[in-house]
Prior knowledge:
heterodimer, A: 394 residues, alpha+beta, Gyrase A, domain 2, Elongation Factor Tu (Ef-tu), domain 3, 6-stranded mixed sheet, 6-stranded antiparallel beta barrel, 8 helices, 18% helix, globular, B: 538 residues, alpha/beta, FAD/NAD(P)-binding domain, 5-stranded parallel sheet, 21 strands
Amino acid sequence: MSAESRDHMLLTTPFHSRIQQACEINDWGIWMGYTTPNAYFDVELEYFAIRSTTGVFDLSPINKYRITGPDAEAFLNRMVTRDVSKIGVNRVGYAVWCNDAGEMLDDGTIFRLGPQDFRLCSYQRTDEWLGWCALGFDVQIENESEAIAALAVQGPTSCTVLTLAGCADLNQLKPFGIAHYEFEGVPLAVSRTGFTGDLGYEIWIAPDKAEAFWDRLFEVGRDYLIKPIGSYALNIARIEAGFLQARVDFVPAEEAVRPGRTRSPLELGLEWQVDFGKALFNGREALLRQRDEGCRYRFVLLDVEGNKPADHSFILKNGKTVGTVTSAAWCPTAKSNLAFAQIEMPHGAPGDELVAEIYYQRELHWTRLLAPCKVIDAPLFNPARRRQTPAPPH
Amino acid sequence: MNQYDAIVIGAGHNGLTNAAYLAKAGLRVAVMERNPYIGGATVSRELYEGWYYSNCSYVSSLLRPEIARDLELPRHGLQVVPFGGGCTFMRNGDYFGNYSDPGRHYREIARHSRRDATAYDRYAADTSLQTRLIRPYLLKTPPDPTSIKPRDLKDLLEFARSFMALGEEKLLDTIKFWTGSVGDYLNEYFETDVIKAQHAGSGIIGTALGVYSPGTAYVLLHHYMGDVDGNVGSWGFARGGMGAIANSLSKSLQSFGGEIVCDADVDEIIVKGGQAKGVALKDGREFYADIVVSNLDPKRTFLDITNSRDLPKDVVEKAQNFKIRGSSGKLNIALDGLPVFNGLDPKSRLMAGDLHFSDSLERMERAYDDWKAGTWSKDPYLDMMIPSLTDPTMAPPGKHMMSVFVQYAPPKIDGRDWTDEDKAGFEKSVIDQIANYSPNFRDLILHVETRTPREIEAEVGLTEGNIFQGELTFDQLLFNRPFPGYAQYRAPIKGMYLCSSGTHPGGGVMAAPGANAAREILADLKRPNTVPGGYVDD
Lengths: 394, 538
């Protein structure tokens, strides 16, 4: 985010000098206007760094909003569907938010840094929506996206590596907890969060110390087989873990043009996120009505027979199309062929047996495959280390 | 209670797979294991504190993904982590790096020969063509060419069809491939010694044949037909060592109610009136079942634990003549740090792959000459790995574990048994070979486990220490494995079956023989099949 890069088509993150060196195959992508690596050397090996050693993903471009003031909690509670008061200080909570029609706008994480001090990380740029939602609340909202560099440090040896990098007793940190350290005189926050479904952490630091921290991490991590990972590897891990991604698994309501293309949290398997016990939040009335009258769609996880990922597949029931796949992958650790699908009600109840119409190409020849699939309750990947405190060493 | 529905002899990966599928079908199953630990040749042991050795088999690719998924092996603790690439170090101080990404792969071959770099695409396509022929048959019982049963006829027809679909030229190539040598095959594509040597290794591993011996081209294929997550030809490490495969299979078996009895050394299969009735152990205990499945190699099964009087003469004769020649040994080495190799940046990703020191077919053939002369190779072919560069659980941080597969090592030295002096000489030849290319290697050695065919046979029970439980030559493949007429997992005693790597589709930690045998047993019992079919390749 140096001054001279302003005039470039794409920005670079505070870690860019290191990433450029590490990116052996120059496979670059764009995320939030930043140059970000799709892959560094080999997508498969990068994926396995997440699952077997430590994978490091540059999270810096993520949108970060600091929300402070006497009404900070009340403001967030008005905006998101869950009860924010249940997020303690130095804890993180997943959250989704809707418009008044109960349509999903985005999802993200809320970091509670103090009683009246929160950080919201969102997939979408949310400045305007936050502004509207803040009407009548005594809060200050600051976009601190560029003020904080961030890395996701994920995998079985991640706790050990970060401990060696100076995060003492990190193994005591519970999932969704935040711990505070100092690195070369600046604050270093570590949260036990991530997008991989594995043991893992995210670190938050001032941009001018980003490179030094990267160097430290990779130096102490060498013996623990640390590797940088790009967005392709992360995507496999997030599908394997069953995590939704905005713009992939749902259309953010503010971007939807065609009628009926938005989804509510209830239609995305996020009922657990909606706290109707709260008297007022955006979309409450619409969601209540939908809860009582029924949803149009059901979000399901499908265990698909065979080894061909059901990318972009139609889902059939008795030969009739009842849904479509939004994300799909062969999951290399779970050894399962997982697909996320949106199924028209009333189909798709757990255990329901459906068929995925899969198209795949070999040597320019397309094959149509009708693969039986089954609705499952939860992704098969669910390692104990993800939940264990103290975190295991590897 | 010593009464079961089925008894499986040998808790290697095929025995456990077989037992798991029988138990899944509702049978009461017990697995008899001679050693106090399970795994057979898929085993990991901590022989030096803090270091885990995959004592025998050391990499995984062929393990059928259908079985791993169906038996929920990931939930039971199995994770196979691929490694990329590899390297052959050359006598002249240079090396050939076998990069996994196509760009560097091309560039590196071209550094040695531009012509070879383009020939590689033709080589890869031709080898894939052969892979495509065999892969659909891995999770199938081989059809019996002499049978007129509808199932056999249907499978034979399908088999014939896939061959005829190749067209005349490719069919002729195929026949040549299945009977030819890996050396001749590679000579048709490449001009550079080191490129040929890098690829030829897969043609001889585990086989008592040289690179110019007919039949070794198929062995190459055997090492290419596996996959890790659909990447055909890719290889990986089982996290925690190969024992993780046996351990996850045992947990899967136990989840279906199956049992494992360790320290249960089978003396003889009990046969009454032509029907298998159970097993008698060397310690006098007896266990009873009307189904007895042997996961021992065909020689041990028919010559050691079955009384010849219970067998037709031809089976005894075929077992006696079964080719199961010892050809290899293994060193597992605990290292105090990462060795440095001449010419290669220690940070190179190639270090995490398979490493070799034979830079020409000539040297590989000479190594085989030593085997024929009744001694270990003085310039051995090594398939060497440093799994601790991929798996952080194999050795303490910063330390390393090295797995060195060594070829050749004969089952006997000059016609007599191996002595401890021979073993020391064998070990020295391997360490010298590595040290020739690595200045700091010797100083890093903390502990060495050396396994000649003598140790492999004694500890694991593989006759002559043959890692595939029988040579993978065409006379012992498909409907010829283990013997013509006995390739559908049934022994010539009612209720007795074979499930070892000595049956189709052979060794390499596939678990397919165990699964295929279970399907046949369940068919004989008229029980629903619990064994999954193979994934469609294309």
